[in-house]
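Supplementary notes for students who missed Thursday's class. We covered one full example, reproduced here. Read the sequence, then the structure, then the short commentary at the end.
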Amino acid sequence: MHMNIYFQLKKLAMKKSLVLWALSAIVMPLFMNGCNRSRSDGGGLSPFGILVHLEGGGENNAMINHLDLVAKMGARWNRTDFSWSHIERSQGEWHFETHDRIVDRLTEQQIRSLGILLYDVPWAHPAHKHLDAWLTYVEKTVTRYKDRIRHWEVWNEPNLTHFWENPDGADYAALLKATYRKIKEIDPELTVLYAGTAGIPLDFIEKSFKAGAVDCFDRMAFHPYRGEFDTMERVVAYYRDIRALQELLEKYNVGDKKLWITEMGLSSWQAVSASTIEAFAEMKRGKEPDKVWKLALFYNENSPAGNALKADEIVALFDGREDFTIDNLGYPDLATIDVSRYDALLSPMMEDYPVTQFDKGVSPSVGSFYFRGRLYFYGNPITEADQAAFLPQAVLLSVRFGVERFIWYEFYSSERNPFEREYFFSLVHHNLEPKPAWYAYRTLASVFPEGSRIDDAVEWNRTDFCVVSWIHPDGTHAWAVWTPSGTKQVSLKIGKGFRKALDGAGRELPVTADTQTLEITPAITYLVGPRTLDIK
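Structure (token representation):
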């Protein structure tokens, strides 16, 4: 009797196994042909990252010293290039020596890599139309490093002409879908990031979603560059920008996919507009000394560039000059502009500014046109102290608004051209001497240890100052308080558990549990320990 039951149960179990096997044979090919909704998790890790260009140049040669400074300041992620053209330098010849060394050094310093799969090669251009070749590169690269690199970003800023010829969300979707499937074949637990977009181009992203990209990434990456958070209006605008991206994800039922900022920074560039005009005028005199140049100023009032001067302020800089005349044009004028009438382009510089690729004069509305010169305008120069104040503000606001990882652009630059802001985003000088922002990063990382979580119950917007709070893994509470500009006296009631107060550079402040007033500035004040903080 009992033996009959045993054999019947065994027979039933074998039938169930056959059914499950048959279902897997049907379902798995569906995942291979489409994209599943894997929720690969990068949770519980440090939110702090940095971009160190390690593939070549001075940074690669001095890598050990660089990474020692990176580790000392508390960065736990590096956004690492794995350029196709660097790895497959000629067709069929694969070179991983440089990247082996990079990954070894990062591992030694206990710095995790966010690998970027990016760009194409001459024999497979553009990549989205040569997917077989692209996927061979992806497979070789990801397979080689999958045990040490668990996060992969697919391309960089594909909405910019500089990085993707004729940017189109649907074309990017084709590349992303194929790459996602390939990576998940290699290891389903690997995390795939949507390419970090320049700015937050909702139209581009939504077009890619409609083309199928929405199910083919685990994290949404973007690069929301902007100027200082020197007014509450700018802070609120940043919140609204991030919220708009979250709402787009929610619209497509993927609101649970976390946001990663894989580039953001602020250049401590000291060149000012007046001196730049003189340099520009000197260049003109060398080309056409007797001609009065007619200038076209493009300025989008709906998308002003970070810390740029306003259009009327730029025009005022040319008052009284006899060598230039200027037309103040808006973005709509691009549709009808006669480019033959102008000698030079004037424009604020920003990655998501409507006119793309200024070097070649390419406009999405007009097509190709060429100017004999260009001139970028900025308002008040950004000091190193401004950069140091901005860094923790940007990180804390981002994490408070729902961003899971924040990668600062960048660690090192040569500083070789004082008229080019690109050379001053770095946290160290060309001789590796730390800038104030390096110390600001180190302090933030020390008071926001790995595994900390934001306390969403604390209101961040206090009308004319900001408060962000978080909880350490051991239950310790921490607070950051600052004002966008100037100084402000606030009243305090510090709760139980207070341990210490620090300034943005990590220096201890003369604050006790009985302190009732505090002067705050854009340089953040940290309070560590109190479970509650009544501040107004």
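Commentary. The chain has 13 helices and 25 strands. Confidence is low (pLDDT under 50) at residues 1-33, 303-307, 349-379. If anything here is unclear, bring it to office hours.
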